[in-house]
Amino acid sequence: SKMKGSDNQEKLVYQIIEDAGNKGSIWSRDIRYKSNLPLTEINKILKNLESKKLIKAVKSVAASKKKVYMLYNLQPDRSVTGGAWYSDQDFESEFVEVLNQQCFKFLQSKAEAARESKQNPMIQRNSSFASSHEVWKYICELGISKVELSMEDIETILNTLIYDGKVEMTIIAAKEGTVGSVDGQMKLYRAVSPLIQPTGLVRTPCGLCPVFDDCHEGGEISPSNCIYMTEWLEF
Hints:
Elements (H helix, E strand, L loop, with lengths): L7 H13 L7 H8 L3 H13 L3 E5 L7 E5 L6 H4 L4 E2 L2 E2 L1 H24 L4 H7 L2 E2 H11 L8 H13 L3 E7 L11 E7 L8 H4 L23 H8 L1
Antiparallel strand pairs: 1-2, 3-4, 5-7, 6-7
Helix pairs in contact: 1-3, 2-3, 5-6, 5-7, 5-8, 7-8
Keywords: DNA-directed RNA polymerase, Nucleus, Transcription
Subcellular location: Nucleus
Organism: Podilymbus podiceps
């Protein structure tokens, strides 16, 4: 047995960590609460179990200053590591942005190819859709990710594109065993054009200015001393 030669207190702490699974027994105070052992004793036991390679401490994105404990042979859950979007507890915003752009680019090229096919509008529309599995395969083949991405990760990115109004999703029934389907359903995505183009006023700083009503020539806030207007005209 792994715990051969361990005393009852050590076995108890090991059991608590084992019960927590790969989401971790959050931290040492949790273990103290469940074991009723003094914190100094728990810290000693944890060090001992770590040295025997029975448990390991993992940093959690949810609480950067706390160590999460789990059995040595387990892989931490995504809720602990933050999954593909985190590296050493830091959110990889640039990586997410690159994925965002590449997923959209793939869907745009799919829509473009459908338009150029010159088929009837219904066939064109249907062929402009791509499954999340197709997008995932494309991203994997690009080789832009250092970490292994799941289809779920790609769907998270596609959801951000939906919120941005760049992509729409539809769910269709799929035969069991169809690649990319889950529970007899498949998510399909396609690039869409914005419903309405922003008007000229909205494109200028004035259209979004919070002090627009107080702005007038000769006043403290005026078009002639507006830094945003100057920047916009230079752009």
